[in-house]
């Protein structure tokens, strides 16, 4: 194959990449390959500078690098590489003869590449050096970052002769690419808002490979890059990376909208050189800015710490804390959340910039949302954009706002506030835009939170000490005041002290008497409330102090508290209510836990003092009562000191003993008895003085024999006095004899009553037997005789005619009526259905026989009862229905039988006129003994009778019988 002619455009190429493109096109045609790729050494690395054709995906540069290193052609599969000077020609599917023919041109190719590289270096160095020098002079060592960025954009636009340029530093970097923050421009008509987005492909080319992106409208139309630059609408554009110390900083963008504008390889190198120089200046400015900001932050933190330490009151400390936080970090709002006693809820204690609804309605949960997570983890929690990071809301209200898209903040930082006593709560910072703080700023927030925690700790310790001192002073003054005097002025002064101690505007103390009624009420800055208002407050009392809403407080109060005064003045136990303490204020802020705790202590001190005074009064009354009892007692009561000298004797002892012994007061108890019983008294005296138990003995004084009980009054185990109670045994003996006599009489009466009941039982049984006998004789004898007679008369009537037959028929009718009457009388005496079928059929028959419409109702498990019990139930029901028919004037009645475990209960009810107790007694006195007979029959059967009746509402008789 003949050597192809060397193309002249190769020697005239201005850049290495132009040389590579021309060489690839020439070689592909010459060797008839599928594809050709030209490699060249640029900056010490082998890079592809030109390509033509297809199949180039088979190459990754490995074969080309091996051919360049070996200095000779290398073939591998469909790839073949031909090295020349500082470059390599790589073929895909080439004709081997064509490759061999082209190898003859390698010396020329080497010379042409070296010439292009030399021209590029000469031209690039001068222009690049001059442009970079101009930029350095323009910056003049400035460390002002906005000034550096503005100068870089202007220098790049002027150096390239393009119309526009901008510099943007990255604010967000991630897998999806990057986004700049504020953009500094030159030549643009409008300022940029919202930053510039850099996609992942462009970000990889710019940052990871350090390459410049070249855009040309005619070449790149329809590409993703063109779509991304559509808003800028450039004719040609160059985008260079800004990076320093291996960290991406941002991008330098230069473009031209002039038709036909083009960018050369030199322009690419120039933009890259400007970007490198600008990166150094930007990095220096940022470092200086960071150091300046650190110094300013340190100074600001020092000032903030001094400001926070300047107040030892928690409210002022929290206000200063929010003020400093807003100024330091540029927040739109900030709030201090306080952990509630339940350990699960956080409420906003102080806030700046937060809406009122937000402050009132937010109740954050520990572990939920930014604030809740910060408290639970005890570390900073950051949400750069809460609407995207799905951290959720700490309360139901914030979750509703997030779900509706109405949450006003995007950047949120939660910082825990801890003390030695535990977590106080959290400081939460809010921004309406995404979080503007960097890592250094976030570290600064943590230092600030630590300072705030220390200030809160000091304030709480100081306020706790003040609270204790104030509480101790109030308790001391209230206790001393009420202990000395419990008059109305003293009570009013106690109300004033308690109200001021509770930081309230008005207050009152209401006391109750022993009957549970309000007796006294002392007020401070408050008109005395009426009984209805006091009753309303009394209804709000609980076990301890509790806040009251405006609805339950006295008029004009915005917030209030009430606490009961409880003690044990009357021996009713610790929950005896003495009254209550009430305090209110026009403000709407509810009393804090500290105020409620102080209220409890003040109320306890008041209750203790009031209880002590009431106990002393009760003790005096009790002592008077005991003295009255002793003075009126029939027993002899004497009190003696440990030596036996009598110090007190009641009138009974004086009347009985002084005629025999002389004056008792001052005499010795041990010398009073006669010598015969003196030893027994001495033994009892020794026993009561040496043992805790009392002593007991019998002594004789003159004609009296006395039973004496001795008991010692001890203090610290030592007897202080001895109490002697004596009783004349002669009276007891007389009383015992009387009791015995009356007991014997009662026993005889009981025996007679038992005999009477036995007689009545036997009489009832005999009566039932007699009824059964008479019923049987009427049925078997009399009824049968009448039936036989009626039949004879019937046969006689058939034989008669005329008037005689009519008279016979009349006689037959009378006989039939007599038969029916005899049968009915026999059934009433003793119905056979009771003996044959049992109680229930008998009661059903009885209901059918009653004049008043009567129904039978049965409940429970039906069973046969003892014959005697069934007879008793039947007679009771029969007598009850007879009374209904005679006296009730009822429209209906009912028999209800309930079979129960261990017995039967029968109720007879009617809707008649009823009666009162007085009416029942009057009927009994008139000789109507129906109820008395029923009660007696039930008692004989061992049961109970219940009677319920009201005039106009009917009567109910209930028989409860065992069996």
From TrEMBL:
Record's catalysed reaction(s): ATP + protein L-histidine = ADP + protein N-phospho-L-histidine
Location of the Histidine kinase domain: 875-963
Highest taxon above the source species: Bacteria
Chief location category: cytoplasm
SMART domains: GAF, HATPase_c, PAS
Domain PAS per the UniProt entry, residue ranges: 622-670
BP GO annotations: regulation of DNA-templated transcription
Identification of the protein by name: Oxygen sensor histidine kinase NreB
